[in-house]
Amino acid sequence: MIKRIIRGIVIIFFVLVLGSIVVSEFPQLYVVPFTKYKLSNIPGAYYTFNLRALEPAQFQAKNLKEFLAFGYSVVLPWQESEIIERRNVHAVFFQSGNKQLIAFDEEPDIFLLMQGENGIQQEDLVSFYGKDVTKSRYEFYRYILNLTPNDLKIFAPKRESLSKSVLVIFKSITVWGEGPFYEFDTNHIRGFQYGNLINGKSFIVDFFTPNDKRFRILFSGIEDQREVDFIINSIRIK
To answer: CA-to-CA distance for 207 and 233, rounded, in angstroms?
Structure first.
């Protein structure tokens, strides 16, 4: 009886030692399954962004006015006399009937946060994710938005598994709305549209300027994608 107890204690001890080694040296063996489990019911984590060509401007309304926001201008396909404009320090609000557009000031993102005070150095980001992904805020953001839990592999190198897990979790709390989601590229800006125009629900467009600043526009009450494309196509950096 005593020998059996001692044998059991020895087995438990070796299991604990082995477990601690596994946890220390191969954390991806539990981090990856745990991350996938936690994100299994979050649709946003699984969406990817497909490149879509914007439709040519087709609005012939007269007296279209160019409005200034935060270092860029935008033209709205609505009669100027019908547009209500309000401003504060961080946003510009436009409304025409039930249609609303809110242009926000420059947006911080994970790329800058990771490089903040006492954050990860540029060379470490390059080591984690590669030169192509980290050459700009836009490329890094694009990489995150097209990363899904399906890209997490248990037997991938530890650094790759852990770094991708962090980004997939970030994506899951960043991407909201109902798909599909789109990527666009004009001669002036490039960015992403989160969600389609279902029953005039709110959705977001993020765009990046040539000097890699990121801005966000919230759309609401718009049910015609051509209007959205017109607005995106009209944006000019000042």
So the answer is: 11
Q: How far apart are the first and last CA of the chain?
A: 84
Segment 149-178, tens digit of pLDDT:
998 887 777 777 778 888 888 888 878 767
181: in domain = yes
Residue in the block written with tokens 């000031």:
105
> Count of domains in the chain?
1
Any domain includes 6: no
The answer as to whether 20 is a domain residue is no
Pairing assessment for the beta strands 181-185 and 49-51 based on DSSP bridges: parallel
Q: What share of the chain is helix, strand, coil (3-state, %, to 5)?
A: 40, 20, 35
Per the domain annotation, does 19 fall within a domain?
Answer: no
> If phi over 0 gives left and psi between -120 and 50 gives alpha, with beta otherwise, what is residue 227?
alpha
Phi/psi region, residue 71 (left: phi>0; alpha: psi -120 to 50; beta: rest), is left
pLDDT in tens, 110-121: 665 555 555 556
Query: Do residues 138 and 206 make contact, with C-beta atoms less than 8 angstroms apart?
Result: no
> In terms of residue numbers, what domain contains 222?
27-238
